[in-house]
Amino acid sequence: MVDEWELVKQGAEAKIFFTEFYNRPTVVKQRFCKCYRHPSLDEKLTRRRTTQEVRSMLRCRKVGITTPTVYFVDYEAFCIYMERIEDCMTVRDVVNGLLEDSSLQATEKLYELAKEIGVLLAKMHQVDCIHGDLTTSNLLSKNSSNAITIIDFGLSSVSSLAEDKGVDLYVLERAFLSTHPNTEKIFEAILDAYRKNARNATEVIKKLDEIRMRGRKRTMVG
Q1: Closest Cα to residue 15, out of 1, 38, 33?
Q2: Contact 150, 139 (CB under 8 A)
Q3: Whole-angstrom Cα distance, residue 95 to residue 93?
């Protein structure tokens, strides 16, 4: 059923393995225990986080957003077995590659990509899914079709509040501009597509502006 596991990444919350599940290339995300927490509390929190991650992916898929297909969830070992997305690049690498190309065609592709990201985020927020860790490393672009897959819903939640959606956009903005300097116009294209497609975009963008101001004040105060 399951072949040997190959550890490919370890973060603060989980380990990521490559394996095969019924002969299908598979990613296993295994959350590990936190020794500083009481065992019963740790189990409760880890189970809740595992459940929420799976639910967020399913919620997105229902509105046409591509996420890894979930094959199996082991709630005893806190493992999520999911589709391994192959023949793809992170959007981070795609953007960096296009930025290195000064041609008009590369610039047009950048803005097309920005528009697609904005539309995806609008769809995601329309079903009140908050990703919690939006970066260009958590967006994958298929080499064959350029379709975008959203991954790593480990910090996701469900909320209808404009504040939470604004924070989601702010996290992406900070990550985008720090990873890809001097791309303010490209990020604005993401927000423009979001405005045109999100149901309560005006309220969310207003909250984003407020969050930006709070961030600047914290930076000034130190």
Answers
A1: 33
A2: yes
A3: 5
- Residues recognised as catalytic: 133
Query: How many residues are given for the chain?
Result: 222
Domain with 173 in it: 88-215
**Structural domain tally of the chain?**
2
| pLDDT tens-digit readout, 111-160 | 999 999 999 999 999 999 999 999 999 999 998 787 999 999 999 999 99
Q: Strand runs (DSSP E) across 70-110, as ranges?
A: 70-74, 79-83, 88-90
pTM of the model: 0.92
User: CA-to-CA distance for 114 and 94, rounded, in angstroms?
Assistant: 11
For residue 142, give the CATH number of its domain.
1.10.510.10
Dihedral sign computed on CA atoms, order 156, 158, 63, 165: negative
Give the span between the Cα atoms of 54 and 156, in whole angstroms: 10
Does residue 92 sit in the same domain as residue 145?
Answer: yes
d(CA 162, CA 88): 32
Task: Specify the DSSP class assigned to residue 103.
Answer: S
Q: Which residue has the tokens 């819903």?
A: 153
User: Dihedrals φ, ψ of 210, to 5°?
Assistant: -65, -40
- Contact of 121 with 194, CB cutoff 8 Å: yes
Beta pairing partners, 14: 31
Helix (H) / strand (E) element for 52: namely helix 39-62
